[in-house]
Structures are given as C-alpha cells and as structure tokens.
Amino acid sequence: MTDLLVHKLAEEAALPRTQLDVDYNARATVTVDRFDEIMAQANAISQKALAHYATFKDVIYDELSQQKLDISGTVAGELRPAFIFIHGGYWKALSKEESSFMAGFLQAHQVASVAVEYTLVPQASLREIVRQVRASIAYLWQHGREHGIDPNRLYVGGSSAGGHLAGCVIAGGWQAEFNVPDNVIKAALPLSGLFHLAPIANCFAQEWLNLTSADVKALSPAENLSSQGCPIIVAYAEGEAAGFKRQSIDYHQSWLDAGFKSEIFEIKGRNHFDIVLDLADPDSLLGQALLRLIADNPS
Questions:
Q1: Which residues form the BD-FAE-like domain (predicted)?
Q2: What is the 3-state secondary structure (H, E, C) of the chain?
Q3: What strands lie across the sheet with 185-191, from one edge to the other?
Q4: How far apart are CA 209 and CA 243, in angstroms?
C-alpha cells in the first residue's frame, strides 16, 4: 500500500465510534419493507435458477467443517469457466440458498456458477470463515473437473462481507498451504466489500466479530495484496453507506498502486442490498462487466 493510502485508512479507523456506526450501517440505508422485498426477490430468483440449472447440489468442499457449495450451469463432457459467488450478511446471516441468482444468465453464456456456504458468526470466528472460503477454492481447483468446471478458469465475486471474503481469496500468502497456485483465481468482482478491518473492529460489528489486532492485520485484504494480483472490477451502489464506498474506492486504488488492473463502478439507482440483482440481468452494467471480466481473462 502507498503511504497515502495507509494514512487514509488509519484516519478512518480513528474516527469516533458514533461516526463509524453510521458509516458501516448498511441496513439503515433502506426501509424495512424494501429490505424484505429485496431479500425475497433474491431468494425467489435463486430458487428458480437452482431448480432449472443446478447440476451438483450440496457438495461438501471441506471435510473439517462439512460446509457445502452448489454448482449450476455445467454440462456433461464439457469443462466450463466458473464464477464463484460468496454471500454477504456481515458474516452472520444469509446462505448459499439466496446466492444463485446469476446462474441462468451465466449458463446462457456457457459459464458455470458456484454458490458457497460458510459457517456463520458466532459459530465460527472470522479466521475460520476465511479458511473455509479458501478451502472452497482449493476444492474447485482440485476437483472441479469432476463437476464440469475448468480449474484453470476460476473467477470469484461476493457482496458486502462476501466482498471481503472474495478479497481474502485474491490476497496473497495462503495458496501454498492449500496446494493451489498463486494465480488460482483469474479475475474478481467484489461488490460493496470490506477490505480493511480496522474500522470494523471499532464499530458495532465488533460486538459479534471480536477481532484482535492480529486478526485485523491478517484478515484485511488491503493489507495482504498478492504479488501477482489478478484483474478486478470493484463496484458499489449509489445508495451505499459511506464506509463501504470509501473502502471500495481505497481498495481499487491500492490495486492500481500495486501495478495491477482494476476498474471501479458506482452502480446508479442501486443500494447495498439490491446491487447483486444486477448479476441476474444480462443488460445491466454489472452483468456485462462480469462477462467481460471472464472473457478478457482466460486461463
């Protein structure tokens, strides 16, 4: 990271708790009715997509935790690129069941999709959640061919806490332990993510995360950039809470400063929760950006 970015992140972490509580309260950016409507819509689209396109359901990817993933859009006798989506929910809510909304759209373009489950806080620490998500990538690298996935064409994305976890997947320093190559992920699309955890450790989310200073350093994607970063597209919603906007902009800049490829989009007319629905829309800016990210970064 540049000295300027380090300074900016340190300044943010030092903001008063009352300010950070506002800046990272995504839930306060929409009404209760709108939130419920978005969640119902995401679930309905995902369940319909799973019913039509799921090819492998509830695949155990990690023997230690027994966590599972769903694979959609594969075809017998063919290896397809795969977009791996990691759900949000501040690491304590939601599941893979609401996370296959892009399956139909991608299947139409010969791209498989994978929805990853992980143990939620407080049943697991954030360190364990990160380990599980990285284990899902290792599983797809090692066993993807058994499920119609080309392990040399893995792409990752996620929203909110899932954006953080996608950042942890493209961070450096973990790949050797999991026996995967440093470039196991060819490109990434983090949405409304959290990439520096110091402000999170100083706001209301610390009540369930219980992050130590060592956790903050080890689990912040912005502090653990890979030596060979893949191309990324960072996106956030126009109606985003201020902290999520700042983190997206700073992460994009840190990627550029490291000499890697990054684009950034503010998605107009969307909020922290409904931005993901654009991944089900082939005509949306985000949907087209995802297709381009995959097409432009083959194995």
A1: 79-168
A2: CCHHHHHHHHHHHCCCHHHHHHHCCHHHHCCHHHHHHHHHHHHHHHHHHHHHHEEEEEEEEECCCCEEEEEECCCCCCCEEEEEEECCCCCCCCCHHHCCCCHHHHHCCCCEEEEECCCCCCCCCHHHHHHHHHHHHHHHHHHHHHHCEEEEEEEEEEECHHHHHHHHHCECCCCHHHCCCCCCEEEEEEECCCCCCHHHHCCCCHHHHCCCHHHHHHHCHHHCECCCCCCEEEEEECCCCHHHHHHHHHHHHHHHHCCCCEEEEEECCCCCCHHHHHHHCCCCHHHHHHHHHHHHCCC
A3: 54-62, 67-72, 112-116, 80-86, 149-159, 185-191, 232-237, 262-267
A4: 17
Q: Which two tokens stand for residue 137?
A: 């990538």
Domain of residue 226, residue span? 3-296
Assign residue 235 the CATH number of its domain.
3.40.50.1820
Number of domains in the chain: 1
pLDDT digits (tens, 9 = 90+) for 266-290: 999 999 999 999 999 999 999 999 9
The pTM for the full model equals 0.96
Give me the residue label for tokens 């007319």: 269
Q: Which two tokens stand for residue 143?
A: 């066993």
